[in-house]
Structure to design on (462 residues):
C-alpha cells in the first residue's frame, strides 16, 4: 500500500468520528418563571455579600478562610489533578519522538573493534475516529467542573463562617439578656428578703425568688459553652487551632444585620449563578464525551512509525554515513474480546444516565434552597417585628410589677411571671434576630453568591 493511498484511507475513515450524546441542561426540569415567595426589589449585588453586614471581623474571617481551610485546599488539589489529567489526555494527540545511542567494543584474536549506533524513532496514532479527541474534551470539561467545585466549596465555607459568626454574636446577645434579667431578679430577691424580715412577706416568696435567680444563673454556663464551641468551629474553618480566636471574639460587638434590597435574579439566572449546578452540568458534558470515546474505541486503531539509524566504527563518522530509514503504517482491530468493548461502552452510557439524573437533582435542590431561604427569611422578619413589640410591652409590665410588689399592692407570683416572661421574650428576640441574619447568609449561598462564572474559566486554565 503506498503512502498516499494509506493517508487517503485514513482521511476517509476520519469522517466516521462519533458524536457525543446531546446535553440539554435542565431540559426536563420545569423551571418556574419567578419565585413563589415575594421578593423585595433591590440592586445590592451578590458578589462579596459578607461585606454588606458592615462587620470588619466577619469580613476578615470570611476572606481569610479560602487560604487556610482544609476543604478548600482539597478542592484546589483536585483541580490541579484535573488539569494534569487534561494535559495528559491532550499529549496523546501528538507524535512521540525518542532518541537512542549506544557504543560497543568487541575483541577477538586479531584485535579489538568499535561499533557506535545512533537513531531517532517516531510514533503516532492518528485520532481517526475521534476517541482521543473526545477524551481530551472530556478532560477539559472535568477540569472546568473541578474549578466549579472549588468555587462551590469556597461559597459553602464563606457561608458556614458567616453563619457561625452570626450565631456566636447571637449567643452573646442572649447571654447579655440573661445577665440583665439575673441582675433584676437578684434585686427582686433582695426586696423579698427585706419584706420577710419586716414581716410583710413570707419565706415562700423568698424561696421562689431565689429559685428564679438560680434558674436564670444556670443558663449562663450553657450559653458560655455554646459561644466557646462556636468560636472553636470558626477557628478550625479558618485553618487555625480551636482556641485561637477566643480573645478576638470575646468582646460582644452586637449582632450585625444585612441591609434590605438584595438584587434577586429570576430562577433560571439564579441557577446559572450557582457553581455546584455548573459543576454538575460540566460533569454531564464530560460523561457525554466519555460515551463517544468508548464508542470510537471499538473501531480499528491506526499507527504510524518512522525511524532513522546510523552505525559507524568511529564516533565522529556516525553522522556522515548513510542512515537506515524505515516507515511503517499499520491498522489493528480486535476480532473477539468476549464483549469487553461493548461492556465498556455500556458502563459509560450508564454513567451518562446517572450524571443526567445527578444534574437534574442538583437543579431541583438549588430551586428548593432558594425557595426555603426566602420562606425562612420572610418568617424571620415577621417574627422579629412581633417579638420586638412584645419585649417593649413585657418590659413595661415587669417594671410595673416590681414597683407594685415593693409597695405591697400585688402578690409575688405576678412578679415572677412577668420576669420569666421578659426573659423568655428577650431570648426569643435574640434567637429570631440571629435567624434573620443567618437567613440572609443562606439566601446568598442559595443564590450562588461570592463568585462569578468567569472565575471557573480562569481557574480551570491557570
Amino acid at each position: 500500500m503506498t503512502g498516499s493511498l494509506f493517508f487517503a484511507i485514513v482521511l476517509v475513515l476520519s469522517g466516521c468520528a462519533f458524536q457525543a450524546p446531546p446535553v440539554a441542561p435542565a431540559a426536563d426540569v420545569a423551571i418556574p418563571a419567578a419565585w413563589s415567595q415575594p421578593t423585595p426589589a433591590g440592586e445590592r449585588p451578590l458578589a462579596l455579600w459578607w461585606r454588606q453586614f458592615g462587620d470588619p471581623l466577619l469580613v476578615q474571617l470570611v476572606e481569610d478562610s479560602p487560604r487556610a481551610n482544609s476543604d478548600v485546599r482539597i478542592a484546589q488539589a483536585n483541580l490541579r489533578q484535573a488539569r494534569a489529567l487534561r494535559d495528559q489526555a491532550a499529549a496523546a494527540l501528538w507524535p512521540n519522538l525518542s532518541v537512542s545511542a549506544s557504543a560497543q567494543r568487541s575483541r577477538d584474536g586479531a584485535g579489538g573493534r568499535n561499533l557506535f549506533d545512533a537513531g531517532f524513532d517516531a510514533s503516532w496514532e492518528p485520532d481517526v475516529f475521534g476517541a482521543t479527541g473526545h477524551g481530551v474534551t472530556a478532560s477539559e470539561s472535568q477540569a472546568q467542573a473541578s474549578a466549579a467545585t472549588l468555587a462551590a466549596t469556597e461559597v459553602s465555607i464563606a457561608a458556614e463562617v458567616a453563619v457561625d459568626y452570626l450565631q456566636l454574636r447571637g449567643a452573646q446577645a442572649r447571654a447579655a439578656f440573661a445577665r440583665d434579667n439575673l441582675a433584676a431578679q437578684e434585686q427582686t430577691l433582695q426586696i423579698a428578703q427585706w419584706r420577710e424580715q419586716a414581716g410583710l412577706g413570707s419565706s415562700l416568696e423568698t424561696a421562689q425568688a431565689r429559685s428564679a435567680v438560680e434558674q436564670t444563673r444556670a443558663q449562663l454556663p450553657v450559653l458560655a459553652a455554646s459561644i466557646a464551641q462556636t468560636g472553636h468551629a470558626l477557628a478550625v474553618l479558618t485553618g487555625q487551632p480551636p482556641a485561637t480566636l477566643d480573645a478576638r471574639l470575646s468582646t460582644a460587638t452586637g449582632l450585625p444585620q444585612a441591609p434590605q434590597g438584595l438584587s434577586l435574579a429570576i430562577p433560571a439566572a439564579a441557577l446559572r449563578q450557582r457553581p455546584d449546578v455548573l459543576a454538575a452540568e460540566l460533569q454531564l458534558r464530560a460523561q457525554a464525551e466519555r460515551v463517544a470515546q468508548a464508542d470510537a474505541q471499538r473501531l480499528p486503531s491506526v499507527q504510524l512509525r518512522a525511524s532513522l539509524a546510523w552505525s559507524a566504527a568511529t564516533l565522529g563518522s556516525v553522522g556522515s554515513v548513510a542512515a537506515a530509514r524505515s516507515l511503517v503504517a499499520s491498522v489493528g482491530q480486535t476480532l473477539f474480546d468476549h464483549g469487553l468493548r461493548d461492556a465498556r461502552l455500556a458502563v459509560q452510557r450508564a454513567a451518562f444516565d446517572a450524571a443526567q439524573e445527578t444534574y437534574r437533582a442538583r437543579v431541583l435542590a438549588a430551586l428548593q434552597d432558594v425557595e426555603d431561604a426566602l420562606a425562612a427569611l420572610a418568617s424571620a422578619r415577621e417574627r422579629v417585628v412581633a417579638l420586638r413589640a412584645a419585649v417593649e410591652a413585657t418590659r413595661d409590665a415587669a417594671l410595673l410589677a416590681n414597683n407594685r410588689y415593693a409597695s405591697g399592692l400585688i402578690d409575688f407570683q405576678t412578679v415572677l411571671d412577668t420576669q420569666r416572661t421578659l426573659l423568655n421574650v428577650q431570648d426569643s428576640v435574640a434567637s429570631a434576630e440571629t435567624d434573620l441574619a443567618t437567613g440572609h447568609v443562606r439566601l446568598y449561598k442559595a443564590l450562588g453568591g461570592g463568585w462569578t462564572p468567569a472565575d471557573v474559566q480562569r481557574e480551570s486554565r491557570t
The mean pLDDT is 84. The first helix runs from residue 3 to 14.
